[in-house]
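Practice problem: predict the structure.
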Amino acid sequence: MSQQSPYLRGVRATNQDDRTQLQVIFDDQKAVAHQINTQDVNRLLSEALGGSYVNDFIHNGRIKRVYIQADAQYRMAPEDIGQWKVRNALGQMIPLSTFTHLEWTLAPPQLMRFNGNLSMEMMGNIGEGVSSGEAMAEVVRIMAQLPNGFDFEWIGGSLEEQKAGSQAPLLYALSIVFVFLCLAALYESWSIPLAVILAAALGILGALLATFVRGLHNDVFFQVGLLTTVGLAAKNAILIVEFAVQLQERGMKLWEATTEAARLRLRPIIMTSLAFGLGVLPLAISTGPGAASRIAIGTAVLGGTVVSTLLGLLFVPLFFVWIRSLIKRPESKVSSSS
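Answer:
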């Protein structure tokens, strides 16, 4: 199924196909009758066929290693194994053919396990124009069609991407809470930062709309642009809210202070937004190698800047008036003495 999927290409398994193997079948009862230790048989097969390092010796001033192994003429045919002899507990040399026999079978050359279970490692590449998230979602869809008894786990870079993706909502939430607490400490109020946080949602809306219109994906570059947009939207909202608070403290009414702050801070907001938007415009229209990452960041930031500027001039004063009206500051009571 993966070969026909447009999201994946070059999918392959690292496991090797079954190969012809020669098995030495060990008869436990005969071995016990001849007082033969199983470890001695395993050591004989390992050293005679594969060789074993035993010592070093000096030859012409150079240190060389000594390996033991059965001579080539005694390990060329399967029948030669039966002629090898192992020493039993009584010191007698017993041929392997006395208590073993040979069988040809098909078996994998390597058994792979994952968490104690038989496993198969699959590797592949993503299709052209497909994000890694879409490819991983396609893998999940394919694995769901397998019969019962099969399961899968991510490893390597895919596992790290899964962990990072699952932590993104928590990181966004913590970022908003951190900004809210900083603003609350700055203005010594719990109501004023709410207007700024609500204005930041306008930048998020603009970034999402711009990314959706251009057919881009929610990747790490978009998330970077999203955080940048939130910062710009919050900064523009602070320009209005902070000035409105100062005018209100001078004695102006809430609505008058808010409209006057929006009028006076209009030019700084427009200048800041124009400078920021024009600064990321080359990223949004860039071409050439590596342009995908620049386009993702530039599109998110540019869309968030435009929408947060246009809508922020209208909604930020409304948010501020609404929040301040809901949470009114208690008036100080002045006691008169007679």
